[in-house]
Structure formats: C-alpha cells, structure tokens
C-alpha cells in the first residue's frame, strides 16, 4: 500500500481523533490508530474500549487498499513538529513495515495488523432514533451545561450531560447536586422523542472535535450508545445507564426576590474578594439591600478578609446568603448579557441565576445551592 497526504491536514485529523485515547490503557492496541485506505480516503480510528472516533481524509497517489495499526502518540508528536509538506506512506503488507518520507527525510514505524483492532460494532437497533442539526446547536448546549456535571463515582448518572429530546425542542441539563444548569433550545425541532446521558469524556471530545457549521447526524440506540456523524468525523459513544434526576422538580418556581447586578463589575469584585476565602470551603457572603450588595470573604485561620460594595437593584428586604466563589464565577462567566439576575427566596433555598435577556428561542436557567452561614 502507498499513498500521499499533506502533513498539516494529517496532523489536524490525527490529533483530533487521538482525544478519545486514554493516557493509560489496559490493552496495548488501544495506544494505536487504525489506518484504513479505501477509495482514495484515509480513515483514522481511535478507540478506548467504550468509544470510537473516526476521521476521514482525502489522500493522493493511492496504490492498493487495506488497513494497519500505527503508534498514535508517536505519529501525533512527529506530525506536530513537521512543516507543511506532502508525506508519502509506503506500507509493506507482508511485514507491516511503514516508511513515511518527505523531500528531506524519512521515518520508519513497525505496524500491527488491523485485524487486532477492536470493533465495537454498535449497529442501529430497531428502537434507534435520529435527527440532524448544526454543530452549533449541540455545542451551544454543551458549552452552557458541561460546567455543572458531577465527577463523583457514587453518582454515575450525574457524570455527564442529560439530553432531553422532544419533537419541538432540545434541552441539555447537568447537575452535581450543588449546582444545576438547564439550557432549552426551541429554535430546533428534532421531531423525535428520547433521552440519554452523554458522559463527561464524550462531551469534551465532541466539543473539541466537531465544528459549528457542520451538519451533525445524531443516532441514539437507547441504553446502548449514541453516534454523531458528519462528512469528516464519526463518533460512537457509550451512554450512561441510570436515571437522571427530575430536573424540573429541582428548579425553584417561587423565588420572589430579584437581585440585578452589572455582570462585569460583579465578576471582577468576586475575583478580588475570592483571594481571601477560606480554601476549605470557598465561601463568599452576600449582604443584600434594596440598592447595595456587599460581598465579603474571610479566612479566620490567617486573619485575612476582603470586602467590596456594588450597586444593585433588589426587590426584597435586607438578606444575607452565602455561595461558593468558584461556582459564582463559572456561572457569571458563561452569561452574555450586561446584567446578571439572581432570583432569591431566603438564605437556605437555592438561587436561580439567569441572564437579563435570553437569546431567541432559548432559555438558560442556572441553580446554585447556598452555603450555610450564621453571620455576615
């Protein structure tokens, strides 16, 4: 087998596909790419035993067809420092010796038979559902919600983003019990009904590989897996088995008091004050009055504290409440409006955090549990 391919294009696809490979693998073969040559197309496949990602590249001067495995890390690292030029791959099908050459050098690899590479074989089942949408629709939902996913093994159903697919809307939800984010997109109508939980790793792979302008076909086989497919990539991911929390019941419906703040001033103030939090819990305290918010943090162990005052509009009476400083910054950082709105009830009930205005046909809702405080 022999073929020619541009070095930078090969690096782009190889580095993207490699994102599915684990740092440590129980099987040596999972440290390799599967290269398949057919019809003037090179398909690069990576697998971690549960998920498979394939990228397809047009190649030139093709002689023969077939497949072989090649060391993924070595290929990606070599291509990373390779200048833009055409590379020629020459594969001895008998010995699987692979020679990669360019005008000023050559490199030799020893390949492994493609027959040894795992094939997960997630065929579409009778109960499969599918829809096609722009990558931007999915990326927007994942970008807003991924920050709220859990990482605790004892709650596996929370270690991913929940997709709630309805004929007229697509909703993304994530929670770790301390925070929850729901993003509902009514601007896209899937026309089907279903749901699944996409694991954290798969969420990150999708966000780093798929483009906003690509059409993505999503095919779900319930309790088995989900496949995302474009003209250039196919990603087969497992789904998390388990029941996701009833998120609608978690979202408070009767938080009567509205706190409106300048979002950028709020972010910078919290960043400064958070330098003085007790690292054990990261607590920042709010004292809210009708026209003023006082933000305070202290570390009694080192006798340090920080405090700032911000102009505010608050519809309730004076209140004190506490939150995690890191969660506040995460939530405020993904909003796009000039103002940020907190819907509050009392110091013990969750706060609802929303932008001052939603984007067309969408609703973003963020829930943050308060932290216990006894005094300001």
Oligomerization category of the chains in this entry = single chain
Shape type: elongated
Q: Share of helix among residues? A: 10-25%
Portion in beta strands: 35-45%
Q: Total strand count, please?
A: 27
Q: Runs with pLDDT <50, length 5+?
A: none
Tell me the strand order in the biggest sheet. 10-6-2-3-4-18-17-16-11
Rg: 25 Å
Number of helical stretches of at least 4 residues: 7
Distance between the termini: 73 Å
Q: Determine the structural class based on helices, strands and strand pairing.
A: alpha+beta
Summarize the structure in words.
With about 375 residues, the chain is of the alpha+beta class. Helix content is about 20%, strand content about 45%. It contains seven helices and 27 strands. The chain has a nine-stranded antiparallel beta sheet. A nine-stranded antiparallel beta sheet has the order 15-12-13-14-27-26-25-19-23. A five-stranded antiparallel beta sheet has the order 5-1-7-8-9. Helix 1 (about 5-15) packs across helix 2 (about 70-80) and helix 6 (about 265-275) runs antiparallel to helix 7 (about 325-335). The protein is elongated, with a radius of gyration of 25 Å. The termini are far apart.
